[in-house]
Specification:
- By secondary structure, this protein is of the alpha/beta class.
- The chain has one domain: 3-Layer(aba) Sandwich (Rossmann fold).
- 34% of the residues lie in helices and 28% in strands.
- The strands form 2 sheets. Strands 6-7-8-3-9-10 form a 6-stranded mixed beta sheet, with helices on both faces.
- It binds adenosine-5'-triphosphate (ATP).
- Adenosine-5'-triphosphate (ATP) binds next to β2 and α1.
Length: 229
């Protein structure tokens, strides 16, 4: 597979057992995707079409029934569990609708965490976390815990955390789904700035067509396959 692409997947199928246990739900039925450096791709699709399932597979959080996923041209299935976790921590940043920040840690500590897991020296991790939080307009909230932050602020901290280790790609699952119009605009403009300044690639799942159409390429997930729109 070509390493011109930051992320690729080929012929991804995903089946779940049906509720009765007698059959299968065929959610993904041959998904191919290629993402170049600094490209922003959006995926739209109706509820239950398999968007989150696909994003989890692209991020190595879930296994497909068949098919392959490549980060920087390398199949992620050649890694064992620990290697995959390490590669994911280095190469992929996740942003979810609900921020998943650790409640007992401050904004700074949450953002530093992925670097500390990689054994980055503490002063370097602190500098990177401060730089990111500052860029995201959060320098006055470094020592606040998630419960002491607004929804938009929590999402900015979770985006900073996703960027801590300079990932090649951000996988974002409805990152503005829980936010009002003003915060939605602020998170989107941050995503576009990141692409321009850090050349990070972004796969954005959204159910909002007007957000999707601002991205470089828009795909619709329908009947288990991706189609350009
Ligand atoms: N672990 C599982 N076991 C069985 N079925 C599952 C499992 N995970 C997801 N599904 C089913 O797969 C389908 C796709 O789910 P997924 O969460 O990917 O959809 P989605 O497009 O992200 O939906 P939404 O926009 O509502 O978040 C759904 O019908 C869901 O019920």
């Amino acid at each position: 597979m070509s390493d011109d692409f930051v992320l690729q997947c080929s012929d991804i199928h995903k089946e779940f057992p049906s509720e009765s246990g007698n059959g299968v739900l065929r959610i993904l039925q041959g998904v191919d995707l290629q993402v170049k450096k600094a490209e922003i791709i959006s995926i739209v699709g109706s509820s239950g079409s398999g968007k989150s399932t696909l994003l989890h597979i692209l991020g190595g959080l879930d296994h497909p029934t068949s098919g392959d996923v490549f980060w920087e041209g390398k199949s992620i299935y050649r890694y064992n569990k620990d290697q995959l976790a390490e590669q994911r921590n280095k190469q992929v940043g996740f942003v979810f609708q609900f921020h998943h920040l650790l409640p007992e840690f401050t904004a700074m500590e949450n953002v530093m965490m992925p670097a500390l897991i990689q054994d980055v020296p503490l002063p370097n991790a602190e500098n990177r976390a401060k730089e990111l939080l500052d860029r995201f307009g959060m320098s006055g909230r470094l020592n606040h815990r998630p419960s002491q932050l607004s929804g938009g602020e929590q999402q900015r901290v979770s985006m900073a955390r996703a960027l801590t280790n300079n990932p090649a790609i951000i996988l974002a699952d409805e990152p503005t789904g829980n936010l009002d119009e003003k915060n939605t605009e602020s998170i989107l403009s941050l995503l576009f700035q990141l692409r321009d300044m850090e050349e990070v690639s972004i796969v954005l799942i959204t159910h909002e067509k007007d957000i999707a159409t601002r991205c470089d390429i828009v795909y619709s997930l329908h009947n288990g396959t991706l189609n350009g729109i």
